């Protein structure tokens, strides 16, 4: 959370009203949906399959989503000035996005930078939830998370870097970068592309650590299951032996009583 605040993406403090935290968490969980929508929009723009009205509609929706993400929790927080200061990047994004929506010529050249900042603002609050999904020791969840991250990164790099000419090349580059292999056949040349590549390399190191933990957890779980079965079988055998000993003890007590009865008669 401290990193989020330093980046101006601090969300709602844990000391704030529970309703404010709930609303902010609801928006944070929805961030990935907006990111996927942006990825689809940018892909359609890349292949010239989206109309200007549809493009403007999506941009307006994203702008309204970020505005709601910023201002709706503002009604519930106790320390509003501190909340706005912790989320100052959202204010900057809203201002630049508003000028882009109205096609202000002076800021149209900032479109690529704005998109990078927008994706960062949407993804950073979602990283906590993504980390929780990756660290739940479920291999299926980890693989799906890696696929989503790779596809999204491939779409974004094809839009922000001129040396990546297609979505397919972008996904291939993202996959090679996340795996920390880096074949070198597709290389970003822009500063934005290299920054994204750096994030992917760091994320790849973490992902492979999580994958290693997942596989270790699978093997340990299998070993524990086998040991558990052996313990259950031994407990069942001990239970049978205990019942047999009880039966034997009852028989011995019965014989002892009969012997005492015979002795008394003699």
Distance between the termini: 91 Å
Number of helical stretches of at least 4 residues: 9
Largest sheet: none
Strand segment count: 0
Mean pLDDT: 79
Given the C-alpha coordinates, what overall shape results? elongated
Q: From the alpha carbons, calculate the radius of gyration and give it in angstroms.
A: 31 Å
Structural class call reads mainly alpha
- The fraction of residues in strands falls at under 5%
Element order, helices and strands? HHHHHHHHH
Poorly predicted runs: none
Residues in helix, %: over 70%
Please characterize this protein's 3D structure.
The protein has nine helices and no strands. It is mainly α. α2 packs across α6, α6 packs antiparallel against α7 and α7 crosses α8. The longest helix has 75 residues. The relative contact order is 0.08.
What's the gist of this structure?
The protein has helices at 2-6, 18-46, 52-71, 80-86, 88-101, 111-134, 139-160, 167-178, 191-265. It has 266 residues and is mainly α.
Secondary structure elements and their pairing?
Blueprint: H1 2-6, H2 18-46, H3 52-71, H4 80-86, H5 88-101, H6 111-134, H7 139-160, H8 167-178, H9 191-265
Helix pairs in contact: 2-3, 2-6, 2-7, 3-5, 5-6, 6-7, 7-8, 7-9
């Amino acid at each position: 959370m401290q990193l989020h605040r330093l980046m101006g993406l601090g969300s709602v403090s844990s000391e704030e009203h529970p309703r404010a935290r709930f609303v902010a968490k609801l928006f944070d969980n929805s961030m990935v949906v907006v990111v996927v929508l942006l990825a689809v929009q940018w892909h359609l723009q890349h292949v010239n399959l989206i109309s200007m009205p549809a493009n403007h509609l999506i941009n307006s929706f994203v702008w309204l989503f970020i505005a709601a993400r910023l201002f709706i929790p503002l009604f519930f927080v106790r320390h509003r000035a501190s909340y706005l200061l912790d989320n100052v990047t959202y204010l900057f994004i809203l201002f630049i996005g508003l000028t882009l929506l109205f096609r202000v010529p002076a800021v149209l050249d900032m479109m690529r930078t704005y998109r990078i900042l927008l994706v960062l603002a949407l993804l950073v609050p979602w990283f906590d939830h993504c980390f929780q999904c990756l660290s739940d020791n479920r291999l299926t969840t980890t693989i799906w998370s890696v696929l989503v991250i790779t596809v999204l990164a491939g779409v974004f790099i094809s839009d922000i870097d001129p040396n990546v000419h297609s979505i397919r090349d972008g996904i291939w580059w993202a996959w090679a970068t996340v795996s920390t292999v880096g074949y070198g056949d597709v290389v970003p040349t822009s500063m934005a592309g290299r920054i994204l590549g750096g994030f992917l390399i760091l994320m790849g190191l973490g992902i492979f650590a999580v994958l290693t933990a997942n596989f270790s957890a699978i093997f340990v779980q299998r070993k524990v299951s086998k040991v558990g079965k052996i313990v259950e079988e031994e407990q069942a055998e001990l239970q049978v032996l205990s019942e047999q000993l009880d039966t034997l003890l009852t028989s011995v007590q019965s014989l002892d009583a009969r012997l005492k009865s015979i002795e008394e008669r003699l």
